[in-house]
Design brief:
Blueprint (H helix, E strand, L loop, with lengths): L2 E6 L4 H12 L6 E7 L4 E7 L2 H10 L6 E7 L14 E2 L5 E9 L2 H10 L9 H15 L5 H9 L4 E9 L5 E7 L4 E4 L6 E4 L11 E4 L4 E6 L3 E6 L4 E2 L4 E2 L15 H7 L1 H9 L3 E2 L4 E2 L8 H5 L3 E6 L1 H18 L3 E5 H4 L10 E7 L5 H12 L3 E6 L5 H5 L2 E4 L12 H21 L4 H12 L1 H9 L2 H11 L4 E6 L3 H16 L2 E6 L16 E6 L5 H13 L3 E7 L4 H5 L2 E5 L7 H19 L18
Parallel strand pairs: 18-19, 18-20, 20-21, 21-22, 23-24, 23-25, 25-26, 26-27
Antiparallel strand pairs: 1-4, 1-10, 2-3, 2-4, 5-6, 6-7, 7-8, 8-12, 9-10, 9-11, 11-15, 12-13, 13-14, 16-17
Helix pairs in contact: 3-4, 4-5, 7-13, 7-15, 9-13, 9-17, 15-20, 16-20, 17-20
Length: about 625
């Protein structure tokens, strides 16, 4: 959840580290810091708040040197303040560390270190780890920095991605990972390396990278190059991959916020998620990434979808798709609950794990549990080279492109697109869908990007509605069928970025409790598009209006019945009911965005949230 960046080479380290932290700020923005080795000593600058605060400090106290590490923090142990900001150091900055993850046994380790004379300046588990390395280094004669780190990690319980720098090693960084991502970029000059928690700070310097596997430790040395060993001290061979990411995708491209840019990118990202997989003329759906395991899906007795947050909502849409089209029973589980519930998993179950980042800690743990019990694991992920694609049996990338805004938008529609393709492919393979309907759905799916474009043209109208409700303190979102998960996602977006309390419900459940909340101050967003439940949702709108609730209705173009009842309506293009989630979510994303902007909220970096949740 935090951002890591490191550099070693011939260039000035501080500007590279600072730029890297700016690229990584979406991963954590409670505090930030940089440490640079000037060939004599390690100098350190860190502070609470945004990277811009750190930049001001660095202007006052420049750091000079060609090797360094930087970090932007999402607070776990201890509040955001200067003392808890990374990097953390031992006495006189002899050694410094940056760390993502959680050391679960830090308290036990800390008590032992205090008894041996160590003193601590912060509340963090990270500081305990660097003191543990220091303790080993001090008490074992002629031990190398690598060996001290390796031995320390053998005492650690938990997850980590770390980079360690030592005053006595001015040409070397030690990096290691377990359960939290770490990538090493190989620079264009000999002896030049970049280290980061994901590829975003590396792409402008190199496309050649090595992704560390769990319990691997890298010795990154300006003179002897890159060496890999594991925690058992066995030598490993670095596997160099080429990054496919484009630098332009990491820029705002003229938009005020990344979130708005990513909302507007959805016609392209949905199209890219279908590219090479959908051929309307030939009547073919083919996902190459799961071809080898397609029969497992077709023959599955049950599909279990595990995910968190927005990905969980996409999974709920997937439940409707697989059950309706492929007639396979589906369970959708929060990964965090699934892993602790001792679930019943059979060898003929297929588990679909969905994650934007490919690093979600709970989802990874759920995958490992399901694999141990013999299930087939299919991944749906956006980040190429991340851990989930390397852990699952097979899967499909969403090809949404980098998503920098913390509140997910284009990742959701890309995930739903891939789930739709998957469900259609399985339905065709099982023979559970008539050919005429299959062909019609291919045509309609192919037209979805154009229909999203039409919804985006309603932005001014949605902005007007947002202005009307920007001071609300609560909101209710209602939907039926496939639009129920969309209601959940709409409510999540509003509370994530505007801090307005919002809840999503199946519309029929409103009268079983939430209706008590409705009065003249309660905005109720109702997704009332044409479909099998249309008459029922009209009744739900009437129930809200009877209690003086304010209704914002998302309706199918040309609707008159709901329009006559609602206070505000947003008309979206008609599409087959099973594809409606791809269209109906767009106005909800825009509504949340505009409300948040009008309330003065930091849309791209909402408080307390981080983009990649790599800790429990």
């Amino acid at each position: 959840m935090c951002g890591i960046v490191g550099y070693i080479g011939e260039q000035k380290a501080a500007p590279i580290l600072l730029k890297g932290l700016q690229r990584l700020e979406y991963r954590g923005y409670d505090s930030a810091g940089i440490a640079v080795h000037d060939s004599v000593q390690i100098n350190l600058v860190k502070c609470k708040g945004k990277v811009s605060n750190l930049q001001k400090r660095l202007e006052e106290t420049p750091l000079v040197g060609n090797i360094g590490i930087g970090h932007t923090r999402w607070a776990t142990h201890g509040p955001p303040n200067d003392e808890n900001a990374h990097p953390h150091a031992t006495a006189n900055n002899e050694m410094v560390i940056i760390h993502n993850g959680i050391i679960e046994n830090f308290d036990t380790l800390k008590k032992g270190l205090i008894q041996r004379g160590h003193t601590f300046q912060s509340d963090t588990d990270t500081e305990v780890l660097i003191h543990l390395v220091d303790d080993i280094k001090r008490n074992e004669e002629d031990i190398t920095l690598f060996e001290a780190v390796r031995k320390a990690l053998n005492e650690v319980v938990g997850a980590y991605a770390i980079v360690v720098m030592s005053r006595e090693n001015p040409n070397q960084l030690i990096a290691a990972k377990k359960g939290s991502p770490l990538v090493i970029g190989i620079g264009k000059q000999e002896g030049e390396y970049f280290i980061a928690s994901d590829a975003t700070p590396i792409i402008e310097h190199t496309k050649n990278v090595v992704y560390l596997e769990d319990e691997e430790i890298a010795i990154v040395d300006r003179e002897s190059g890159l060496q890999l060993r594991n925690i058992k001290n066995q030598e490993k061979t670095p596997y160099i991959q080429e990054l496919k990411m484009q630098l332009e995708a990491l820029e705002k491209g003229g938009y005020e916020h990344f979130m708005l840019k990513e909302i507007y990118e959805q016609p392209r990202s949905v199209r890219d998620s279908m590219r090479g997989r959908l051929n309307v003329n030939k009547g073919i759906v083919a996902l190459g990434g799961i071809r080898e395991y397609e029969q497992k899906l077709i023959q599955a007795k049950r599909i279990i979808i595990v995910a968190c947050g927005t990905s969980w909502h996409a999974g709920l849409v997937g439940e409707y798709l697989f059950e309706d089209l492929a007639r396979i029973p589906v369970e959708v589980e929060y990964a965090s609950e699934f892993r602790y519930r001792n679930p019943i998993i059979a060898e003929d179950d297929v588990v679909i794990a969905i994650s934007q980042s490919g690093e979600t800690a709970d989802t990874l743990a759920a995958i490992e549990m399901a694999k141990q019990r013999g299930a087939t694991i299919i991944g749906i992920c956006n980040v190429i080279g991340s851990t989930i694609p390397r852990t699952t049996h097979a899967g499909s990338y969403t090809h949404a492109g980098p998503e920098i805004g913390v509140a997910s938008t284009k990742a959701f529609t890309a995930q739903v697109t891939v789930l739709t393709l998957m469900a259609l492919s399985v339905a065709q393979g099982k023979g559970t869908i008539p050919h005429s309907r299959f062909q019609r759905l291919l045509i309609e799916l192919d037209a979805v990007p154009e229909k999203i474009e039409k919804v985006l043209q309603l932005d001014d109208q949605i902005q007007y509605i947002a202005d009307y409700y920007k001071n609300a303190t609560n909101a209710l979102y209602l939907g039926r069928g496939i639009n129920f998960p969309v209601a959940l996602e709409g409510a999540l977006k509003l509370k994530e970025i505007s801090y307005i309390h919002a809840e999503g419900y199946p519309a029929a459940e409103m009268k079983h409790g939430p209706i008590a909340l409705i009065d003249e101050n309660m905005p109720v967003v109702v997704i009332a598009t044409q479909g099998a439940s249309y008459d029922k949702i009209v009744s739900n709108v009437q129930e809200v209006k009877a209690r003086k609730g304010k209704v914002i209705a998302v309706v199918t173009q040309g609707d008159e019945q709901v329009k006559a009842l609602a206070d505000h309506t947003i008309e979206i293009p008609e599409v087959d009911e099973v594809l409606m989630g791809l269209i109906s979510v767009i106005p909800l994303q825009l509504l949340s965005y505009h409300v948040a902007v009008m309330r003065g909220c930091n849309v791209d970096q909402p408080r307390n949230l981080a983009k990649s949740v790599t800790v429990e």
